[in-house]
């Protein structure tokens, strides 16, 4: 049985003393986590990464950055309300220096960084990277030079695992607390497991690559996370709140974006939001707002407030089962508004996610990422593995790799995974526009200005 005292340990990888969060310069350790994320370069890059609509032209359509800020705001509300409940139930937490605001800060920081590992062009980008290694000649050519587990990592690019990698990377210098990293990790398992349990939400995807396995094991040991199987851990209970904050925001705000772009009618959007509000929905009060945009904004805010209340209640009812590992499903699937959220989800798939503008730009994203991976992978392969094919254009391509890229020690007798992982780090860390610009240049479609 996990316990909150240990789950809220404030240690970091930089000091593994297991100490509880302490005040530093008027900020708790968990508040410092939030600040470290928001000032980081990977977080800033989210301003030009796809949310739903790649490279959006409309000023009011959300990017990954605005989405992450909103998820973090909802997450803070969820975490603080859950903290009030936990401190009332477990008075020893207060005696250890834990406050409700600390739990709000943990969830807010984890939620702020929840999309930090997403590649350009959203989920289409994830599939493009995975498909490259599975299907492209210069992708699957690497299979003999990596282990089975490493090959699974490459063939199943996962933004959550990439995010964990970035947050624990020495290069980014974020060094978040173990508690925040665990709350961030919705899928505490590696890519390859012997048997996946379809009834456990935490088994749906994976949360760390094989080269971060030891990092996660250290984190789990420090926090007392228990295992559901030899390869998988139980979720940290606060990860359920991070997931719920994301579910709430993308359901409601994607609907609002769809209405803004004319993909969903105003009337249909109002009806769906009104269903969440129930008796609190009073159509007559909307008349005092002049425009459909203002009316939708009011309903959106009220709906999010309603969902926060319902989610906190569900968390409080399920908290003991979370500690034992018995509970493993999305909180938004068990709240009273679950049915209404299901309707929004189905409509969003039909009218938003499969709309022509989204599909067209996703298709372009596939071409861009596959093209970038092809030229860099081919050049690396020719330099280190098929040296007889190494040519001048390969040399030019490799000079475009970032400073610090590992360019020594590779060959037929060496495991290529660290080099390929660095290549995927480079490509997946690009913004949409950077990826598109570099693709045009390396393919000769556009020349840099001189």
Give a brief description.
The protein is mainly α. It contains 20 helices and no strands. It folds into two domains: 232 residues, Hypothetical protein af1432, CATH 1.10.3210.10; 119 residues, putative deoxyguanosinetriphosphate triphosphohydrolase like domain (putative deoxyguanosinetriphosphate triphosphohydrolase fold, Orthogonal Bundle), CATH 1.10.3410.10.
Task: Describe the overall structure.
- With 450 residues, the chain is an all-alpha fold.
- The protein folds into two domains: 4-235, Orthogonal Bundle (Hypothetical protein af1432); 238-356, putative deoxyguanosinetriphosphate triphosphohydrolase like domain (putative deoxyguanosinetriphosphate triphosphohydrolase fold, Orthogonal Bundle), CATH 1.10.3410.10.
- The chain is built from 20 helices and no strands.
- It has helices spanning 4-7, 29-38, 41-44, 64-89, 91-95, 100-112, 122-135, 137-140, 148-155, 159-168, 178-184, 213-223, 237-260, 266-277, 292-324, 338-353, 356-384, 392-398, 417-428, 432-442.
- It is globular.
- Residues 15-23 have low confidence and may be disordered.
- Residues 60-260 form the HD/PDEase domain.
């Amino acid at each position: 049985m996990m316990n909150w005292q240990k789950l809220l340990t404030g240690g970091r990888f930089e000091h593994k003393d297991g100490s509880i969060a302490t005040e530093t310069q008027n900020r708790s350790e968990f508040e410092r986590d939030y600040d470290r994320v928001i000032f980081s370069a990977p977080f800033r890059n989210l301003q030009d990464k796809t949310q739903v609509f790649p490279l959006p032209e409309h000023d009011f359509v959300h990017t990954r950055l605005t989405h992450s800020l909103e998820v973090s705001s909802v997450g803070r509300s969820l975490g603080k309300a859950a903290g009030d409940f936990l401190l009332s139930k477990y008075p020893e937490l207060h005696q250890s220096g834990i406050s409700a605001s600390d739990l709000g800060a943990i969830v807010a920081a984890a939620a702020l960084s929840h999309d930090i590992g997403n590649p350009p062009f959203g989920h289409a980008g994830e599939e493009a990277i995975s498909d490259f290694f599975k299907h492209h000649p210069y992708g699957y050519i690497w299979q003999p030079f990596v282990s089975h587990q490493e090959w699974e990592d490459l063939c199943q690019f996962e933004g959550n695992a990439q995010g964990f990698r970035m947050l624990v990377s020495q290069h980014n210098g974020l060094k978040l607390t173990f508690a925040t990293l665990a709350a961030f990790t919705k899928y505490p398992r590696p890519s390859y497991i012997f048997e996946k349990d379809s009834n456990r939400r935490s088994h749906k995807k994976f949360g760390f690559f094989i080269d971060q396995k030891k990092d996660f094991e250290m984190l789990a040991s420090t926090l007392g996370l228990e295992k559901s199987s030899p390869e998988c851990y139980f979720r940290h209970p606060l990860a359920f709140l991070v997931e719920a904050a994301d579910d709430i925001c993308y359901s409601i705000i994607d609907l609002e974006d769809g209405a803004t772009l004319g993909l969903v009618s105003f009337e249909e959007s109002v009806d769906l939001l009104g269903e969440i509000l129930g008796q609190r929905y009073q159509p007559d009060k909307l008349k005092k707002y002049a425009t459909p945009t203002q009316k939708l904004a009011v309903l959106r805010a009220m709906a999010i407030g309603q969902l926060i209340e319902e989610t906190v209640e569900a968390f409080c009812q399920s908290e003991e089962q979370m500690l034992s590992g018995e509970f493993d499903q999305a909180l938004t699937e068990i709240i009273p508004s679950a049915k209404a959220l299901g309707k929004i989800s189905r409509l969003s798939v039909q009218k938003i996610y499969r709309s022509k503008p989204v599909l067209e730009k996703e298709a372009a994203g596939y071409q861009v990422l596959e093209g970038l991976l092809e030229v860099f992978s081919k050049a690396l392969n020719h330099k280190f593995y098929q040296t007889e094919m190494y040519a001048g254009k390969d040399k030019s391509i490799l000079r475009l790799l970032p400073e610090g890229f590992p360019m020594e020690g590779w060959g037929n007798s060496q495991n290529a995974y660290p080099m390929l992982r660095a290549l995927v780090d480079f490509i997946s860390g690009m913004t949409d526009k950077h990826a598109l610009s570099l693709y045009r240049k390396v393919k000769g479609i556009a020349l840099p200005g001189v």
